[in-house]
Amino acid sequence: MVAFANAKINIGLQVLSRREDGYHNLETIFYPVNIYDVLEVVEARDTRFIPSGIPIPSGGQDNLCLRAYRLLSESHDLPPVHIYLHKTIPIGAGLGGGSADAAFLLKLLNTMFALGLSESQLTGYARQLGADCPFFIRNTPVLATGIGDVFEAVRVDLSEYHLVLVTPRVHVSTAAAYRGVTPDPKGRQLKTAITHPVATWRDTIVNDFEVGIFALHPEIAAVKRKLYENGAVFASMSGSGSSVYGLFSKPVKIVDMEKDNQVFYVGGER
Ligand SMILES: C[C@@](CO)(OP(=O)(O)O)[C@H](O)COP(=O)(O)OP(=O)(O)OC[C@H]1O[C@@H](n2ccc(N)nc2=O)[C@H](O)[C@@H]1O
Ligand SMILES: Nc1ncnc2c1ncn2[C@@H]1O[C@H](COP(=O)(O)OP(=O)(O)O)[C@@H](O)[C@H]1O
């Protein structure tokens, strides 16, 4: 059985407070985007993970796909499987690719082996695999709070926009990105700001990671500047970076970007 695991972007991200367990409470909007990893699961004599496409640094045994399979195996009688993953979503780039793979694998195994797990049970498993992971179970635009795992539906529709997604070839550590932010419990009224026209977002919607990450990696700040110079209605870093996206009201081709970055031109439709 095959599944297509899509990426996400964050629209706005406020770090509200640091928790005793070292994680942070935040407020962000998750929005699914149309770039995909391809997962295939086949019953086999032994269990194996077979990656292709973009190489995954940590590679084999600790891959989130195997972790998701093992987690479900603890409470369900799953046969051995071969898990094929063709990786297209840039890794460690603020696009949630690893979390998407894990969440889509949980859903795939649930369907393939008729486990009968509900959405909330699947979300419970996803929560054990990473903060970003539960979002991909529902995979619809949401305002996320808690550590990014408590959801409220929001009305955001970017289907009229052309999304340009740029991933600079620099790796940003998520844990380091959190360390570089001073939490502010007041937040920035993201829930209200998101209901206003996209053209207002430039002045109202902020990703708290940008200041620290842009200081460390000016080339990421330069990408955001370039997206605005080319007419973006709104541009922002996604999550802890390094990816930056721009929303455009008409199709564009950004010159001189492909040399130093990976560039995806994606419709805003879902
Ligand atoms: C920043 C965000 C924004 O959507 O995504 P990315 O930019 O990485 O995609 C997420 O909060 C990342 O979620 P995810 O990548 O799943 O995090 P995890 O694997 O659970 O945790 C990685 C590390 O990030 C930090 N972390 C993560 C989530 C959170 N709410 N507070 C944290 O402090 C912790 O230091 C943790 O050890
Ligand atoms: N299936 C997977 N795809 C991508 N990364 C994975 C996967 N499994 C484990 N990882 C590890 O997770 C880390 C980042 O995951 P990813 O979801 O791509 O980043 P981000 O949360 O920044 O979008 C990397 O260090 C990578 O080695």
From TrEMBL:
<feature type="domain" description="GHMP kinase N-terminal">
    <location>
        <begin position="63"/>
        <end position="137"/>
    </location>
</feature>
<comment type="pathway">
    <text>Isoprenoid biosynthesis; isopentenyl diphosphate biosynthesis via DXP pathway; isopentenyl diphosphate from 1-deoxy-D-xylulose 5-phosphate: step 3/6.</text>
</comment>
<protein>
    <recommendedName>
        <fullName>4-diphosphocytidyl-2-C-methyl-D-erythritol kinase</fullName>
        <ecNumber>2.7.1.148</ecNumber>
    </recommendedName>
</protein>
<comment type="similarity">
    <text>Belongs to the GHMP kinase family. IspE subfamily.</text>
</comment>
<feature type="active site">
    <location>
        <position position="8"/>
    </location>
</feature>
<dbReference type="Pfam" id="PF00288">
    <property type="entry name" value="GHMP_kinases_N"/>
</dbReference>
<keyword id="KW-0414">Isoprene biosynthesis</keyword>
<dbReference type="InterPro" id="IPR014721">
    <property type="entry name" value="Ribsml_uS5_D2-typ_fold_subgr"/>
</dbReference>
<feature type="domain" description="GHMP kinase C-terminal">
    <location>
        <begin position="209"/>
        <end position="250"/>
    </location>
</feature>
<keyword id="KW-0418">Kinase</keyword>
<dbReference type="InterPro" id="IPR006204">
    <property type="entry name" value="GHMP_kinase_N_dom"/>
</dbReference>
<comment type="function">
    <text>Catalyzes the phosphorylation of the position 2 hydroxy group of 4-diphosphocytidyl-2C-methyl-D-erythritol.</text>
</comment>
<keyword id="KW-0067">ATP-binding</keyword>
<dbReference type="InterPro" id="IPR036554">
    <property type="entry name" value="GHMP_kinase_C_sf"/>
</dbReference>
<keyword id="KW-0808">Transferase</keyword>
<feature type="active site">
    <location>
        <position position="132"/>
    </location>
</feature>
<keyword id="KW-0547">Nucleotide-binding</keyword>
<dbReference type="GO" id="GO:0016301">
    <property type="term" value="F:kinase activity"/>
</dbReference>
<dbReference type="InterPro" id="IPR013750">
    <property type="entry name" value="GHMP_kinase_C_dom"/>
</dbReference>
<dbReference type="Pfam" id="PF08544">
    <property type="entry name" value="GHMP_kinases_C"/>
</dbReference>
<dbReference type="InterPro" id="IPR004424">
    <property type="entry name" value="IspE"/>
</dbReference>
<dbReference type="InterPro" id="IPR020568">
    <property type="entry name" value="Ribosomal_Su5_D2-typ_SF"/>
</dbReference>
<feature type="binding site">
    <location>
        <begin position="90"/>
        <end position="100"/>
    </location>
    <ligand>
        <name>ATP</name>
    </ligand>
</feature>
